[in-house]
Amino acid sequence: MAAVTAQNAAIPAIGLGTWELRGRVCVRIVEQALRLGYRHLDTAEMYDNEREVGEGLRASGLRRADVFVTTKVWPTHFSPPELERAAKDSLRRLSLAEVDLLLLHWPSSKIPLSETIGALCQAKRAGLARHIGLSNFAGELLEEAVKLSTEPLICNQIEIHPFLDQSEAVAASRAHGMAVVAYSPVAKGAVGKDAVLARIGKAHNKTAAQVSLRFLVQQDFVVIPRTSKVERLSENLAIFDFALSPQEMAEIHKLARPTGSVLTS
Ligand SMILES: NC(=O)c1ccc[n+]([C@@H]2O[C@H](COP(=O)([O-])OP(=O)(O)OC[C@H]3O[C@@H](n4cnc5c(N)ncnc54)[C@H](OP(=O)(O)O)[C@@H]3O)[C@@H](O)[C@H]2O)c1
């Protein structure tokens, strides 16, 4: 499995997103994804599915060390005692001794960042997480988080797909040696309706979604597409056997807009 390296970490280049996957569907999709070759799972306390993600992981029969598991702390739990409790609760639900990556899900306007970053670093030192990082951080908050952290912040997980220009947040994250993890990498399914991606896909015998994911991994982003359909698990994984030309990459870059977020769609 290809990986993106950052500081002392290697993150598998594709992971399974699990937002909105619940119950038996979640268990089954996680198990199937791992059987098909995924080695990276992305969950969060907010997704209310950590139990099912853990169950799918155990059902796959894989060794714990072979799967990279990320979870995230929600901002209501950003005070130091709350963060420690939230991380331990996540581990209990996942039935794991540690996660590979623990992220701050979104910046908080209520709790001072210095306290939260201190608690995140402490969670790592206490062995609750092998690595720590951020999600949805940009601008001054990103700079402040990096300055405050006494442990390496290995990634920033942000919305990235062909329709959204995130060049500033990407450059800032990379300037601090962070890997960039692209969430909503198939724009919540909207890539399927794009004529440019479909045309480029046709030339490679690939779908528009595969072109979108290839476009991202070719820029050294980690991608974490979510699907509730087993057949799409294989489709989304089959992106390492073709390459987009510089002309095709440039054409896809032209689809990006500062206002192209699909988060609330
Ligand atoms: N850190 C954050 O704040 C944050 C925010 C959002 C997401 N995330 C993470 O990133 C993951 C991915 O983002 P996302 O769930 O927002 O969006 P996404 O992965 O871009 O899109 C998921 C949607 O696209 C469809 N889809 C998946 N593969 C497809 C394919 N090959 N062709 C056509 N449609 C396809 C899925 O439908 P079917 O189920 O019908 O296949 C689903 O409705 C999340 O699950 C979560 O783990 C993190």
Q: How would you write the strand order of the largest sheet?
A: 3-4-5-6-7-8-9-10
Which blocks of ≥5 consecutive residues have pLDDT under 50? none
Global outline: globular
- Terminal Cα span: 32 Å
Total of helices = 10
Explain how this protein is built.
With 265 residues, the chain is an alpha/beta fold. The protein is 41% helix and 17% strand. It has helices at residues 23-36, 50-60, 80-94, 113-125, 139-148, 167-175, 195-204, 208-217, 230-237, 246-253; strands at 3-6, 9-12, 16-17, 40-42, 68-73, 99-104, 129-135, 153-159, 179-183, 222-223. An eight-stranded parallel β-sheet has the order 3-4-5-6-7-8-9-10. Helix 4 (113-125) crosses helix 5. The chain binds NADP nicotinamide-adenine-dinucleotide phosphate. NADP nicotinamide-adenine-dinucleotide phosphate binds next to helix 9.
Topology:
Blueprint: E1 3-6, E2 9-12, E3 16-17, H1 23-36, E4 40-42, H2 50-60, E5 68-73, H3 80-94, E6 99-104, H4 113-125, E7 129-135, H5 139-148, E8 153-159, H6 167-175, E9 179-183, H7 195-204, H8 208-217, E10 222-223, H9 230-237, H10 246-253
Parallel strand pairs: 3-4, 4-5, 5-6, 6-7, 7-8, 8-9, 9-10
Antiparallel strand pairs: 1-2
Helix pairs in contact: 1-2, 1-9, 2-3, 3-4, 4-5, 7-8
Bound molecules: NADP nicotinamide-adenine-dinucleotide phosphate.
NADP nicotinamide-adenine-dinucleotide phosphate (NAP) binds at residues 17-19, 42, 105, 135-136, 157, 183-189, 192, 209, 224-229, 232, 235-236.
